[in-house]
Structure formats: C-alpha cells, structure tokens
Amino acid sequence: MTFQDRNEAAERLAEALSGYGDAHPLVLAIPRGGVPMGKILADRLGGELDVVLVRKLGAPFDREMAVGAVDESGWVYVTPYAARVGADASYLNQERNEQLALLRRRREQYTPGRRARALDGRTVIVVDDGLATGATMIAALHAVRQQHPARLVCAVPVAAPASLAEVRRYADEVVCLRSPANFSAVGEHYREFPQVEDAEVVACLEGDSGQRGEGRLAGRE
User: Fold this and answer.
1) DSSP 8-state symbol, 127
2) Which GO terms describe its biological process (predicted)?
3) How far is CA 53 from CA 72, 110, 162, 170, 219, in A?
4) By the 8 A CB rule, do 205 and 110 touch?
5) Residue 66 belongs to what H/E stretch?
6) Which CATH class is domain 6-206?
7) Rounded distance, CA 33 to CA 187, Å?
8) Other C-beta atoms within 10 Å of 156: how many?
9) Which of 49, 153, 161, 217 is placed for a possible disulfide with 42 were both Cys, Cβ 3.0 to 4.6 Å?
10) pTM for the full model?
11) pLDDT of residue 198
C-alpha cells in the first residue's frame, strides 16, 4: 500500500479509528508532518486538535538518524543502539538541551497565549505520518501518559515492524495501516511527501474550533 499523500493516509486512518467517533477524542499531532493529518482525524471523528511537542535526538554523524527523543518536560528516550553510533551521555545531554530550546520556541509559535488542553480522563489519539525508529512517538506517548488519559491510542499509516512492536508498550492501542518487512523510510510509502512548514501547522491549529460534529464519519453521529 502506497499512499498518495498525507491527506489520503489520514482519511484511511479515520476509517480505522471510526469507533472513537462518539468519544469526542483529543487528537494530538506530532509536528510537523503529523499536524495536517491530525486535523483531518479531528474533523472526521468530531474531536479536538492539539500538538504534542517532542524532538528527535540525532546521531552524531547522521542527524537524520534518531538515537532518542525528548519531550517538553525534558524526559529523554534513548534507543538501544545509541552508544554504538557514538551518542554517549555527554553528547545526548548537549543534544537534549538544544532540542528543548527548540521545543520552547515551537510552543510559543504554535500555541501562543494558551496552555495545552487538559488530558486527564480523555480519549487521546497521538498521530504521526509514520514510524521509522519510533523514538519521537515513544517520547510523545510517555508525555501524554503522565497526564492520565482514559485511553491512549497511537495512530500511524506506516511503521517499521520492530519500531511498531516497541511502541505498543507505551499505548493502550496502536492503529497502523501498514508495517512492511522491508521498511526503510517513511517517505517511501507516499507518492507525495512534501515538507510541512510551520505556517501550515499554525493554520491547522488556528482553524480548529474544538466544536466539531458535521465532519464525523457516517454512522458515528
């Protein structure tokens, strides 16, 4: 299965998650690629949209390769192979501090003048456009779990099998449409996979009223 773009992937995820249409879920998207998808999910499920801010910790000689991830509280998830690729404690601490500074800037940019929505007792769906190492999703799920949601769901269109297995430990349910054995990169499973810019993230969040209903899936009114 190859998705045309993030919109198609989100529509397919919405169908798979249609059972939550009566729960008024809070959809928490991981910026940036997960945010336009999160908006579609919130529309279709009659829920609300917000972001969960986490950042990948890049490897010393390949910043695109995740050796861990950090959430807004400063909690860090470290992958089992981090030390093998040169990410020692000193490096991880420096990378953590740099990414925390970026998270603070993003919080000010994405949700100025308001706090994140309360999660206690809610059904929360955390969405991203795919899982490669799974590090950022694990950090996101950990951050959400600390706020005591009633049910915590991870939703992704595609994932590496090993990463999917690891992520299952952190969620009550994982919804993944495809997990191919030959997985190499998230973008390879989309025909169109443009970079999502900060302006699009802000527009999605500003356009979310939190009072959705007409966009729900048929049969979930």
Assistant:
1) E
2) methylation
3) 6, 10, 23, 17, 33
4) yes
5) strand 62-71
6) alpha beta
7) 11
8) 28
9) 49
10) 0.92
11) 96
Closest-CA residue to 131 (of 30, 58, 11) = 30
Residues shown for the chain: 221
What tens digit of pLDDT does each residue of 130-144 get? Answer: 999 999 999 999 999
Compute the radius of gyration of the chain from its Cα atoms: 17
Q: How many CA atoms lie within 13 A of 76 on its CB side?
A: 20
Q: What is the DSSP letter of 150?
A: S
Place of tokens 């951050």: 143
Return the half-sphere exposure (C-beta side, CA atoms, 13 A cut-off) of residue 108.
6
Residue 18 has pLDDT above 70, yes or no: yes
* Structure-token pair, residue 134: 């799974």
Q: In this predicted model, what pLDDT tens digit does every residue of 75-133 receive, in sequence order?
A: 999 999 999 999 999 999 999 999 999 999 999 999 998 877 889 999 999 999 999 99
Provide the token pair at 61: 């000689």
Question: Among all chains, which residue has been given the structure tokens 């198609």?
Answer: 8
Q: How high is the pLDDT of residue 212? A: 42
